[in-house]
Amino acid sequence: MHKNHQISASIILRNHQVIFNGKVIFETAEDLELPAFLKACYQDLKIDYAKFYKMDLLSKLGFIASEYLAKDRKLNAETALILQNSAGSLETDLDYQESILDENAFASPSVFVYTLPNIVLGELSIRHQLQTENAFFISEKFDASFLIVYLQNLFSTNKANAAICGWLDLDKEGYNVFLSLITKDEKGKALTAENLKENYEQFKTRA
Amino acid sequence: MRQKPAVHIIDDEIIAPLGWGTSANLTQIKQRQTAIKEHKISVENFYYAALFEEEKIQQNFDNLSFSKAEDFTKLEKLFLLTVHHLLERNPINLEETVLIISTTKGNVELLEKAENSIPEKSKLYSLGKTVQKYFNLKNEPITLSNACISGGLGLSVGKRLLEENAYKNALVLGGDVVSKFTRSGFQLLQAMDSEICKPYDKNRKGINLGEAAAGVLLSTEKQNSKIQIVGEATANDANHISGPSRTGEGLVKVISSALNEAHLEASAIDCISAHGTATLYNDAMEAQAFGRLNLQQKPLTSYKAYYGHTFGASALIESILSIKSLQQNLLFPSLGCEKIGVEPSLNIQQNLEEKKLKYALKTASGFGGCNFAMIFKNLKYA
Q: Across the interface, which of B123, B237, B242 has its CB nearest the CB of A113?
């Protein structure tokens, strides 16, 4: 179906490891708190982006994953951002909910803004200057078949030329990030639901 | 390029404090009646919003055969009722139908009582599961949460899936209810007017909250439909997460892209149902964008002073109202703009007016920098 588009790169953040195209490229001790792991990744990336420190954890996860994914390359100006997860913005929702229940706590408008899952799409758009198709879907499990049909429409109607798509989830149990970069006329795996799913299923446990 | 099937609007439903059912809503709008009222939080604290009377929902809900089957949330009841009304009128093959749910916060009020465990129903996808269960839908529902464009994006997603022949019909729902969660957030952002909101007015001070649910049935089978979706797009501003681009970058892009898909020039548009939240920055941004595309003279309506901002429902309700404009050849009045306060000046539709209408543009913008545009065509004038 997708003759011209391929899965040209994939990134996984799981178990405090960063896995790029199937290889562990960075890791920390597993007992590090998530914010500390993300800060270590940020330092490993050797970037200077002050907005990173203001983001909620879901946005930080999406930011770090996309930085590794887009490292050493310029993204196509028409790269769509299509993400899924199961928990929405639940962790930040809980933080905000706590702040409005406790009268002594300070409820912050900037925390409230992050209680929308698509805010991370805004953060990635700003970072990569992408004025492109954006959508955030919520499903119980990673749905590769849906993504394929959706991308097929975006590409065949010229609404996008490329895409960053995948799974960006965070809840009390932990985080689970899998992003793929889909581009045109590059080397890579065929863009099929089976291949996306196979990539997603890798590295469920620490390598 | 392979020809894609056309996507038609088969039926619609609005359940809102303004009216129960689309035609009840239209009756109110034609008479310039708002559902926004003052609601007390405490002795000295109040806010303006369009809220349901709980008994009204319950009375209607009790008529559904499964109404006692479990403890349903308010939003679940609204969605189940919307689907009930649509399926009652339209005997469609559910095996060829996909359910799409648009919501920003779903059942977020359940977090108030969450102590150690997270209630399953606070997960947004649970809404789709509930509707799927009670109407025996075969296909896995799709849920999206994309701030204030959610309801419009739901229509886009439906159109896109139908164009790819993934399904024959799409049942697109949009809804949100007002909770302490959203109310306190917009109070913190100081984004709420202390009176009924005034879209595009010089003295506009912010939004009112609202709650509602809506549904649209899309199909690749034309049936008796006279309305088709001919163009649509979304785009990010890539500018700020909680404020729009001052120059309306994303909005200009989505309108241009939707026009392009429809093979139309901006001059072909007959009327606009805009976002018009009545915040200082949103309305100013929209005027900039419409001006850049030379759309500033087109009759434009904001429905926010009827419904408040109903978030996940708003762009879907306002799309339905665009469709009704086309079907009835009527421009509906925008409420709340006495003295225009945007640059360039816009042609705010002040009265109910009969007019031959072929193309209607719906737009929306939201947090996260997202923008949406969709063009509906009236096939009576094809």
A: B242
